[in-house]
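Sequence in, structure out.
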Amino acid sequence: MNAPVPLPQQTAAELTATRFTVPGIKCAGCIAKIERELVKVDGIASARVNFSAKRVAIEHEPNMDEASLTRALEQLGFEAQAVEENPLGADDKERTQLVRALGVAGFGMMNIMLLSVSIWSGAEGATRELFHWLSALIALPVIAYSGRPFFASALMALKHGRTNMDVPISIGVILATALSLYETATGGEHAYFESAVMLLFFLLAGRALDAVMRDKTRAGIGALLGRMGKSAQIVDEDGSTRSVAAADLEPGMIALVAAGEALAADGEVIEGASAIDNSMLTGESRPEPVATGSAVLAGAINLSAPIRVRLTATAQDTAIADIARLMDEAGQSRSSYVRIADRASRAYAPAVHSLAALAFVGWMVAGAGWYQSLVIAIAVLIITCPCAMGLAVPTAQVVASGALLKRGLLVKDGSALERLAECDSALMDKTGTLTVGEPVPQIDDLSKAQKSVALALAQSSSHPLSKGLAKTLRAAGVEPAILIDVTEVSGEGMRGIWRGQNATLGRPKNSTDELQPAGLSTQLTIGEFGQTIAFNDPLRCDAAATLDAMRALGMEAAIVSGDRSAAVDAVANTLGIKGFGDASPKEKLEMLDQLKGAGHKPLMVGDGLNDGPALAAAHASIAPGTASDASKQAADAVFLGEKLMPVALAVKAARATMRIVRQNFGFSILYNALAVPLALFGYVTPLIAAIAMSVSSLVVVANSLRLNGAAK
């Protein structure tokens, strides 16, 4: 953690925030280095690292430009990029290198072990020396290639005057290899090539596993900003239009927004009437009518007719960019597990170095000679390798994640299981979360002819209600009537002529939003006769059972939604829980803060873009598979299918996972408590140390496999 820096009040108010993508952030040590050292640079007040997104947010004086901040990061050994250049913090090169190194180490380990087994079976003399040389021929290129991730990291750390977990690992591997070469060249009895390669293989397996899981969590903010229009058609004073990139738009410009186009900036409608799809911002699935004077936001999609919009906020000042900032800042506040790892890594390297040095010096003083003392020191370095400790969490998380996936829940971030296990309350969105999110029409009151005409009109429209009506009618086996002159009138609906009579499907006459507070409807008119078709958004089939299961786990749930209060209250009363409607993204965050302030650890379940900040700020979060891309990216887990029960199963499995993790940690501590003294007193060779380390890892993996049934 960076220490807070006191600033004069007038200076703090003038600070500027700049964000960079730093793909080179690899561990807790990197986080501590950046946050601790950057604030020592003149003009920088604070630095915060978002490990999942691999971003650094720097608060600094306005006279510092991006170039000077980039240089400050480079002097710490980190390459920085503008967020626009690499919004996801992706580092495909690193992931590819890890996978290749793992494959090479696995191939080398298997071949060297075949030779070692022959030596252990009794090969002696020239045969043993030949097998040692063959082992060296295989091991040296394998270690040189597969060890690069550790060697490079250790070298960088030492170059900047610090240590990390890769330093003792690199020393152990290099010393074991050098000693084995000496033994091979002098015709010695023991060589430890298999120990060094085996050590690299297990370390790489853990690191590759971790990289794969983290890669799935980085795309949140980039996906959110990707929903904005990339450009806009700007109307000049002479009436001509030109395409302007979103980054170059300025307030006051007049934009012509065609039907089907996403808005690239916030603005006000100055000409035309249409309907916009604002569901990604408000969570409301119903298209919102807009006319002159209506405010429209970047990211919304114009559905039906062209409109002219005077831009009021562009680029980083738009509402969607503000939501992205909220998600970014909320994401930085929940990395406590990284801090724990940081403290552990700081203690690990000095402890291991001290133990190995103590073993070497102690045995030299005892008169064991440099060779025997070095062998013991190497055994200490290898046997204290934190493989079992390192696998304790990721293996349990991977097995539990696999079990949950079979039940329809995808865990995006392994650390989410830690937070899910701690959740003791839940806030849930309504539309699309507790409900199915697709309007379903009530067609029982329609005659056969009305159903047929309604299908003919509905299937020609892209309106969500028309789509729902057409889907239901087709499912009921209705055949569309033959109509002529079918047209869609903006703001009114579909029109056509059936058997000489006018037929329309559109907004109910004399109806406004206020007159239908808790439901949706449309009106079918044939000739003089009109029939209102009501829609409802049904609850998920297992919503009540899911809430019962959550109560059994000690979690009380409540609804918090941007939908109208009347609609929220109706669902809340049905389910017997509290409901809060008309909640803005900021109000949802405030409710989460209140719960946290009261000592709770809330779980957020939501699907709309307006839920994004709350999903990121909650202790843990889950989104349905039908949610907006940004919400799915902001959430820790996504449940698939129409059932809600995976949410309760996720909490149950997460708590089982943490029990297994604690068992794994307990075993790892016991292993070190027994193995380290044996190594220190010279009862363990480097080979036995590598085998013991590998066996301890296998025990941890086997224990984690018990989580296969955690989601039942």
